[in-house]
């Protein structure tokens, strides 16, 4: 009943120490350091793993994704058809909601305009619309999207959501499916993208769909915010829309290639805020406890929580 970690951009030794303290009677090893008993490994904790790890561990029972996103696993042809568990943690959800609310308020309260005025030494006020006059649209009404939608609604924003299948959320107008996507975008002043990366969402936000956003809203132009997955957006189209004014502003935490290449023109867009995929960095201890709880429950005969549907990719 051993646990193996295959983690990219994480310190495997620190994670092993943390998990070992919670599971003192288990052998926990990092793939990079070598696995002494691969046939006894039943659990894999992965983030952008070495694809060779799957074939090397023939008796795996469960794979845990170290993060809310699972496209780093579902995109691998080597991924075995085993239970795949994604992270759903209150701390991660809270941090994502903080980032989304902060970026929404930043654009709503015209911070970029005032920051530019401060740099130029200009004292000039601009009309400030009430939150109820601003229509926020949340792409993706999963755990993260629902929490952000409720938080923005509590601040007074006119909030709607779009998802693959129909959902009913009190106080939030819901749209679903391809047939209702245009109507959803047409009514949106601030678009918040929290979609997972799947074949169906690849570059979903492209030039055509950015052009569907409302140009007649209170902000004087639409704003695009993405803390979901970079693969869901066309960055060339975003840059063009920012340059032309079709987008008034943007806040981007995720990109198709990370780190964002130095030559990307998005770096130089003054109306675009860039953060390095930090919107929902969660507490390592909380994530470790989440994994351990799932393992203990699974071994006691309980059902695994937050399983990924491998057919749809999330």
From TrEMBL:
For the keyword Membrane, the answer is no
Domain of life, per UniProt, equals: Bacteria
Signal sequence, renumbered to the chain: none
Can you give the residue ranges of the D-isomer specific 2-hydroxyacid dehydrogenase NAD-binding domain? 104-279
GO function terms (MF aspect)? NAD binding; oxidoreductase activity
Q: Write down the InterPro entries for this protein, in alphabetical order.
A: D-isomer_DH_NAD-bd, NAD(P)-bd_dom_sf
Keywords, alphabetical: NAD, Oxidoreductase, Pyruvate
Task: Cite the Pfam families for this sequence.
Answer: 2-Hacid_dh_C
Instruction: Please state what the protein is called.
Output: Glyoxylate/hydroxypyruvate reductase A
Q: Which organism is it from?
A: Pseudovibrio denitrificans
């Amino acid at each position: 009943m051993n646990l193996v970690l295959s983690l990219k951009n994480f310190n495997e030794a620190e994670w092993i120490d943390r998990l070992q303290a919670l599971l003192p009677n288990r052998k926990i090893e990092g793939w990079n350091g070598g696995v002494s008993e691969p046939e006894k490994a039943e659990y894999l904790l992965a983030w952008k793993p070495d694809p060779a790890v799957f074939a090397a561990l023939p008796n795996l029972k469960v794979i845990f994704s170290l993060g809310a996103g699972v496209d780093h696993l579902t995109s691998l042809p080597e991924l075995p058809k085993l239970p795949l568990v994604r992270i759903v943690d209150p701390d991660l959800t809270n941090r994502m909601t903080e980032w989304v609310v902060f970026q929404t308020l930043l654009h709503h309260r015209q911070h970029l305009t005032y920051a530019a005025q401060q740099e130029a030494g200009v004292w000039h006020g601009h009309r400030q619309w009430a939150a109820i006059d601003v229509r926020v649209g949340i792409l993706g009404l999963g755990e993260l999207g629902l929490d952000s939608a409720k938080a923005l609604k509590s601040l007074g924003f006119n909030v709607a959501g779009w998802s693959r299948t129909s959902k009913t959320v009190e106080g939030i107008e819901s749209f679903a499916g391809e047939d209702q996507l245009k109507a959803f975008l047409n009514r949106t002043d601030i678009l918040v993208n929290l979609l997972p990366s799947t074949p169906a969402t690849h570059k979903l936000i492209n030039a055509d769909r950015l052009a569907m956003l409302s140009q007649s809203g209170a902000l004087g132009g639409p704003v695009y915010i993405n803390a979901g997955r970079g693969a869901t957006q066309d960055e060339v189209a975003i840059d063009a829309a920012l340059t032309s004014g079709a987008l008034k502003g943007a806040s981007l935490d995720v990109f198709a290639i990370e780190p964002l290449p130095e030559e990307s023109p998005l770096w130089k867009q003054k109306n675009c805020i860039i953060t390095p995929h930090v919107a929902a960095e969660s507490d390592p201890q909380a994530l470790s406890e989440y994994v351990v709880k799932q393992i203990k429950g699974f071994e006691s005969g309980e059902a695994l929580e937050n399983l990924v549907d491998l057919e749809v990719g999330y």
